[in-house]
Amino acid sequence: MKVGMVASHYPHAAYREEFIARVRQVCEVLLGTPGCLSAECWMSEDAVISIAQWESEEASAASFAAVGAAGVDVGYDEREARPREIVRLAAC
Description:
Layout: E1 3-11, H1 16-31, E2 36-43, E3 48-54, H2 57-70, E4 80-90
Antiparallel strand pairs: 1-3, 1-4, 2-3
Helix pairs in contact: 1-2
């Protein structure tokens, strides 16, 4: 079953461009893993939004393991104005 994720991140204005670059790096790693169907970076007025889709929950888990192994900066810290909002999705 296909699964997806929408993550809204709220960087402080001074870190917005850096954060967009970080999300794009994550998307590149995700897209390089088997079973990742899409990974994109979007913006709204106050958020940087990542949207991804996989063939299965197992493919999603493997993608995030690859992100960890790649050493991409995904840490939550003072560069963000408020907590991230992450919604996991399953196709129906």
